[in-house]
Amino acid sequence: MTPQSGPDESQTAALLRAVDGLRDEMTAELQELVSIPSVNPKYPGIEYDEHVGFEGQATARLAQLYERAGARVDIFAVESGRENAIGTLGTGDGPSLVYNGHVDVVPEGDPATWTIAPPFSGELRGERMYGRGTADQKSGLVAQAFAGLALHRAGIRLAGSLQLQCVVGEETGDHACGSGAVADRGYLGDAVVVSEPSAPPTPLSIAPIGPGLLWFSVTVTGKKAHSALRGATIHSTRAGEVHGVNAIDKAFLVYQGLRALEQEWAQTQRHPMWANGHFALLPGAIRGGPGTLTVPFSLSDSATIEYAVQYHPDREGSEVQAEIQAAIDRAADADPWLRVNRPVCEWKLDWEPFATDKGADISQQLADSYRSATVGTGFPADVAWTGFYGVCDATVFTRRGIPSVVFGPGDLHNAHTEDEWVDLDEVWLAARTYALLAARWCGIRK
Ligand SMILES: [Zn+2]
Question: What pLDDT, on the 0 to 100 scale, is given for residue 1?
Answer without folding.
Answer: 47
